[in-house]
Amino acid sequence: MIVVMNHDANEKDIESVIRKLEKSGFQIHLSRGVERTIIGAIGDKTRLGSLALEAMPGVEKVVPILAPFKLASRNFKEQDTVVTVGDIQIGGQAVHVMAGPCAVESREQLMEAAFRVKEAGATVLRGGAFKPRTSPYSFQGLEEKGLEMLAEAREATGLYIVTEVMDSKTLSLVTQYADILQIGARNMQNFFLLRDAATTGKPVLLKRGPSATIEEWLMAAEYIISGGNQQVILCERGIRSFDPYTRNTLDLTAVPVLKYLTHLPVIVDPSHAIGKWRFVPPMARAAVAAGADGLLVEVHPNPSEALCDGPQSLTPENFRILMEEVRQVSKIMNRTMPDVR
Ligand code: PEP
Ligand code: MN
Description:
Radius of gyration: 21 Å
CATH architecture of the largest domain: Alpha-Beta Barrel
Bound molecules: phosphoenolpyruvate, manganese (II) ion
Structural class: alpha/beta
Distance between the termini: 44 Å
Number of strands: 14
Number of helices: 10
Strand order of the largest sheet: 7-8-9-10-11-12-13-14
Order of helices and strands: EHEEEEEEHEHEHEHEHEHEHHEH
Largest sheet: 8 strands, parallel, barrel
């Protein structure tokens, strides 16, 4: 439940409410808005009746949160969460595009991709060094060498790095290199990894599991937030459906639904959703029109030679064209796009 304080409640009032709740075993999460302070309390709600919180000075109302996700919910925090990565803000006014190859394959491939996506206006470079592959015989990633290349590309371009962490064992290694930790679709409900990722202090890009409901996805985010890290970005990347024509089905309804249910930023990955490069640009445009705060797009200097996900990767030139279109859609949506730096 949440305790909404009056706009003229003072520090002493807030403190008294917190102390009373803590004494009854509630876990407290404070949200200080511009207008008023909201105290989130998680615990046994049968104890609430005896507390008479509404009679305490400074308390406006006590509202139960019925959804199972509490800290991720908009009831708990009305204002959008803005995730800060260096000098960019994800979930704010600007639409940010994260782009790059599926996997880091070589220094040359990554550098070429990095410079080309930067020229087109991306602010974050993506690239997997640890790859979750269906087959154990497929390319598994360059691991630490790949992370070093990502760091070199960051140094050379000024782009921030988002890269996937697959398990708790490699978390501290990936954390040393990443600006944003990506938790992939297959790991969305790896609860130990979610808990551990919360302790790193890095923003987490949490992809939707291929068969996860929106509620399950928000509960996964709840693991990270309740572990002390509110810097979570949700990424819709398509869900399992019956039609094999596309790799997955892009659930664009998730964008407005999430914007309603949660304060967390929402981005869309049309590449993994569709699996065919030709259909990536229209769905990227549609995602921004639906209210997405950003995009994650696979771009490869030479898709036909890619070691991973070539069929869904855009060439740098097609990515440049897409970025011009996304700029137009953003304008219509009253959003900005960062200037090319
Ligand atoms: C990826 O981004 O390269 C990836 C593996 O994505 P997902 O976890 O959505 O399949
Ligand atoms: Mn991929």
